[in-house]
Amino acid sequence: MLSLLKAAAWALLILLFGVGGGKRLEAAVTASSLAIVGYDDFHDSFSMLALTPLSAGETIYFTNNGWSSTLGKFNGADASQGAGNESLIKLTLTQNVAKGTVIFSGTDGAGWAWTKSGVIPGQIGGSAVFSDLSLDYESDQIYAFQGTTANPLLNPTSFIYALHFGSIDYPFFSDSEDTLTGDIPPGLSLGAKNAFAHTHLTFHGDADGNHSAWGLNPSAPAVAALQTSGGTQAQWLAVIADSSNWAEGLSGLSSFNVTPEPSRSLLALGGLLAVLNRRKRSNSMVFVW
Question: Are 154 and 88 in contact (CB under 8 A)?
Answer without folding.
Answer: no
